[in-house]
Amino acid sequence: MAAGRIARLRSYSLPRMTKKNRSQQSSLPGNPSGNLSANLSAHLSESLSSPPYLPLLIVLFVGSGCAALIYEIVWFQLLQLVIGSSAVSLGVLLGTFMGGMCLGSLALPRFISARQHPLRVYAKLELGIGIIGIIVLFAVPLVGNLYLAIVGHGMPGILLRGVICGVCLLPPTILMGATLPAIARWIETTPQGISWLGFFYGGNIAGAVFGCLLAGFYLLRVHDMATATYAAAAINITVALIGFALAARTPQARPADEAAQDAIPRASGSWAVYVAIGLSGLCALAAEVVWTRLLSLMLGATVYTFSIILAVFLVGLGIGSSAGAFLARRSARPRVALGLCQLLLTAAITWAAYMLSESIPYWPINPSLSNSPWITFQIDVVRCMWAILPAACLWGASFPLALAAVASEGQDPGKLVGGVYAANTVGAIIGALAASMILIPWRGTQQTQQLLIVMSAMAAFLVFVSLFSGSESEAASGVERQRRLALQVVLLIFSAGAAWLALTTPAVPRLLVAYGRYMVTWLNQADIIYMGEGMNSSVAVSQLAGGVRNFHVSGKVEASSEPQDMRLQRMLGHLPALLHPNPSSVLVVGCGAGVTAGSFMPYPSVKRLVISEIEPLIPQLARKYFGQENNNVVDDPRVQIFYDDARHYVLTTPEKFDIITSDPIHPWVKGSATLYTKEYFNMVKEHLNPGGVVTQWVPLYESNVEVVKSEIATFFDVFPQGTIWANKKNGKGYDIVLLGQVGPIQIDVNAMQERMNRADYMPITRSLYEVGLGSAVDLLATYSGQGIDLGQWLVGAEINRDANLRLQYIAGMGLNLYRSEGIYDDMLAYRRFPEELFIASPEIKEALREAMLRP
């Protein structure tokens, strides 16, 4: 969930000491080389500002930001395959990632002498990042095997996930964190080089934004994680080579004595600045978590949406940091500017909350009106910028202003930047984890944003209080005292205003949680009888005028009491249960409304049913609002629920089952494509008992033919004798069920009907009759094809693999399309009556053949 940490934190290599402070530093007592440093600095400034060098310096910053974002996206995707994608797993992953950045920023100025050429140090760091980046690509599968051998559940399992993330991510992220103080020392070594700061920063942010979009829209959509990693490593190596070349060509002005630098006291009241910049980082990342969740409801939770949100956030940080760096060099009172930034953030957070709740969801936009996703992307960018850009700009400005506020003459710039950077990063870690794992599931997005407003006001208060304390206040002139008094009055007014803003922060519309990007088309048509925001998803239950209830997850209907949805949910259960001669153990991937899981409860042979569900809120709602439809499955003593990412559960459980049925969320939702990969289907196959059966839901709506072919071809690649069963709506294609079994499949139609006629199977027969499938012939007439017949249709279909997860990228391009009828008709053209599949009397076979031809 939260992305953009690397570039956001690394791109803060902006503010430096003022020109006045730098000139004073060169002539400080204890710095006998001051004149030599000045001469070398002048020579270096002249060489760096010449045309041949300037583009190369910009390339360093462009490349650093670009590679960082590519790595972040790839590593998050790569490690999620091992440790899962639940909120706990992502929290551990994010904490480890950003913790490494923090350690690197603190370690470099303490372990690397300031006398080493900063450009050479920076080049070595970039080279190390590139080398380790490639190692991580190959090491994760090996470490994953070790993890699987000793994995457990509960707290030991969480700790083990942390160890795995640490082994994989700490080495490269420590190096990434160290690049910031390294570059800071380079700029301080070249005083006149600060004049090019705007160019350097612009290149870094441009690189970060470009890396984010390059990875999300091209490298991972067209290629795979390996290609993306090699591209990032190539950028790192290129940057390193340029850095080495520049270090060889440019002399280094020796810094002041390091012991003397360490003895320089901190600026008065600097503790308040460190706390304030920590609170700023906390609020920034917590807000990003909140806004990503809300914007994903409005735009659709695709990989492209996350890339767009991240890119817009980075652009805002870039604009703000450039402005903050400008103010830090010219303002005599950077601490006042920092405090004002935190005060303005109270208004900016309120603005975002209002836009995301009271304005943007009501814009008259129906995404299904456009067949081109690229048109929709343009609207998405505008909506993101309108809501979150102001706050992102202010957070971007806060870091350089904080650096200027605590800088002392002669101070080691590496330690200065590393300390402020670490404070900001620690705050960011706390904010991201607290928002995603505690605040949102406990208090919701509304109260989370209210808390962020209050914390921004607290940060401002601390900064301003630090101005009024100590000897500075005692020595102030009368005019200065009056100014401070006026500032105190203004601060009280703004604090009262911040409290009012927090109290008036609006709540997320319940209809938005239910219908997401189509909310505006459902105004005044549905009654939202429940809305909740969980750790992993936002969920809702709606009721229509006719009494139909819909179960919504993250802005999308995932289950309902509509006839076509009830039929699909029961088919996922009854098809494999009736095909298996004596099912005893069942695994259901995804609880939803519980109807599929509940379909197994009437079977007398079923002794154990496991439900793997990522969101703890969902089974509670299934119990309360769909208990009648799901046979009260949640309360059945045969049922055990595991709250974990379904793929992670299948990957780590030693248990095998007679039936595994999967009804995951739509493949265009970010992360869900891991439940449609060849590797996942192989895991499912390995967890089937002999004669076991697997069913998999595949939607035809909100999709395109390329996506459907990829899903079917991937399934058939593992289950080559698999079959397809259709769930129609008004006689037209709607969605399908894929059915696979280890070995050949044969269906005894007469035996199936005999079972359905038994007294102990009457609840099962009634369940099917309620959805229009009152006999074995009716159920089996939904047959729509098998692998051996669809070979020609599936030629060229993309096999979805763990290494590329291509499905989520191609599916993200078709989420606003409704072409299910055409897709089903194209597929049905290859269907033939499978004589070898059905075992039945001639009369039953003829009846089945005729039933298949009925619309």
Kindly name the structural category: alpha/beta
The largest sheet has its strands arranged as 7-6-5-8-9-11-10-13
Would you identify the regions where 5 or more consecutive residues have pLDDT less than 50? 1-52, 189-198, 470-475
Give the domain tally.
4
Portion of residues within helices: 55-70%
SSE topology sketch:
Blueprint: H1 5-10, H2 19-25, H3 34-48, H4 54-83, H5 87-111, H6 118-150, H7 154-189, H8 197-222, H9 225-249, H10 258-263, H11 270-299, H12 303-330, H13 334-359, H14 373-406, H15 413-467, H16 471-475, H17 478-503, H18 510-515, E1 527-533, E2 538-543, E3 549-553, E4 556-560, H19 563-579, E5 585-589, H20 595-598, E6 608-613, H21 617-625, E7 639-643, H22 646-652, E8 657-662, H23 678-686, E9 688-699, H24 705-718, E10 723-729, E11 732-741, E12 747-748, H25 749-757, H26 762-769, H27 776-780, E13 783-786, H28 806-811, H29 820-828, E14 838-839, H30 842-853
Parallel strand pairs: 5-6, 5-8, 6-7, 8-9, 12-14
Antiparallel strand pairs: 1-2, 2-3, 3-4, 9-11, 10-11, 10-13
Helix pairs in contact: 4-5, 4-6, 4-7, 4-8, 4-9, 5-7, 5-15, 6-7, 6-9, 7-15, 8-12, 11-12, 11-13, 11-14, 11-15, 12-14, 13-14, 13-15, 13-17, 14-15, 15-17, 23-24
